[in-house]
Description:
Elements: H1 4-42, E1 74-75, E2 82-83
Domain DUF7577: 75-98
Transmembrane segments: 6-31
InterPro entries: DUF7577
Amino acid sequence: MIDLGTVYLAVTGALLLVTLGVGVRVLSEIVREGRDRQRRRRAGELEKYTEDEEYDRVPGDPVEDNGDDGGADTTCPQCETDNDAAFDYCRRCASPLRPGS
């Protein structure tokens, strides 16, 4: 007779191996894309701050205001992206928005 514990371990092990394989594949694609972007930046094919394809924004575009912060947006001195007044660091390039930050 087949022990259910052994079947459970075999199925769980197989699922973990499949998940590990998919995870490694995704991570390798992320690394490959990062290296490709870095190579293209060094070759001058890409600017340092390019259009953000995911959010369809470019540096300097205004940030949508919910009206809940009560303050004016702060513009980043490095990439000129508008940031919420409560931010200490730029949401795009992580540069300090105020001296001493």
